Amino acid sequence: PGIHPELxxxxxxxxxxxxxxxTAALTxxxxxxxxxxxxxxxxxxxxxxxxxxxxQEELWLLGRVAGRASMHPEIxxxxxxxxxxxxxxxxxxxxxxxxxxxxxxxxxxxxFALLERTPLEGTELLDQGFAFGMIAQHEQQHDxxxxxxxxxxxxxxxxxxxxxxxPQGPPPPAAEVLVPGGPFIMGTSTEPWALDNExxxxxxxxxxxxxxxxxxxxxxxxxxxxxxxxxxxxxxAPEGWEQVxxxxxxxxxxxxxxxGQWLRRRFGVTEPVPDEEPVLHVSWYEADAYARWAGRRLxxxxxxxxxxxxxxxxxxSRRYPWGDADPTPAHANLGQRHLRPSAAGGYPAGAxxxxxxxxxxxxxxxxxxxxxPYPGFRAFPYREYSEVFFGPAHKVLRGGSFAVDPVACxxxxxxxxxxxxxxxxxxxxxxxxx
Length: 434
Ligand code: AVJ
Ligand code: FE
Fold this sequence. Notes:
Elements: H1 5-28, H2 32-36, H3 46-65, H4 97-117, H5 130-152, E1 176-179, E2 182-186, E3 202-206, E4 209-212, H6 218-226, H7 238-246, E5 255-258, E6 261-266, E7 269-272, H8 284-293, H9 301-309, E8 364-371, E9 391-398, E10 414-417, E11 426-427, E12 431-433
Parallel strand pairs: 8-11
Antiparallel strand pairs: 1-4, 2-3, 4-12, 5-6, 6-7, 8-9, 9-10
Helix pairs in contact: 1-5, 3-4, 3-5
Residues 52, 56, 81, 138, 142 line the site of fe (iii) ion (FE).
């Protein structure tokens, strides 16, 4: 039974509109000078993300779907992420803030007209509104990237959001959960807007393992620091140890010590590091070293997904840990409703069938696994989304952070990055063999 075409159209329009509201909030919050400045060589100027969002939307929806010629062919190469590394983007003849806003708005106006009269079926790209959903997810992904740029920006705070509630409901009964070994269904062949790397659904077996009920907290991570974790090469992968020594790293990014206390800077505010919050802004190497110090290890990607989706009662894999229903604020901390992760131990309504908590939202969780294609993978609709990143250079992150919009978050969603990266909203949980 297909979804009613008008409902699909409404969903696509709502997803595009929500993404643009977030883009506007992130880019209207700062001056033109801040939009064109480079706040870190790791990031693009915000004004690049803004026009890149419009350009990808133009290329895919007006170009590939509607078959129209480029509005401004000369700018396409400026906004091709593969032609210019982030560190060089400020030197490009980019559209200025007003021109970038106007361009993105003009594309959007034409896209809404297209959506009105395009059947959401007939081709793989249009099926169930996929191309429109892909573009809404792309914009939300860049909104998270822009939020990372905001976090790296110096100066007074410009963003605000309510604090998350303290944990609601009963605390988890135990610190770790036993996930029984055996096969489960990993990935998806039915989720309409799932991206190519999440496909196809396939059977994967894992051995029984224990996994942390909640992500590793700042308090737990501080014990690793206090125990000299950053001074002990035996806990570290060789490249991680090299990074620690070369950059004199001794704590997560944005932490510093003052008067015997750990403080951290968060969107322009300095505050004591909160004990019960999941640790944030750690590299894969830091996560891996902590786990080794704790006598544990990172979960593999398959273990993470089995813990998150497998329902032992039915043998099915769920869309989310709590079931197939779309996320609500009771399930998970998503969508930049807050500017930080929620304390560990909340969201009982978002628990998996076995009782694992906060798998979705709060912090991206590093896994032990390299980013690799599933058996039967097919690049769609372009090789540069996933395929060119497959291999041992990138590690997989799962679950999504507080900065991920629900449209770009599912039990099957896969993120990836270099193991040295720590400006992303990354944390982790640990596991152990039985
Ligand atoms: C999936 C988050 C790794 O931002 O590099 C954005 C998403 N791809 N534009 C990224 C993406 C093309 C991608 N990540
Ligand atoms: Fe992009």
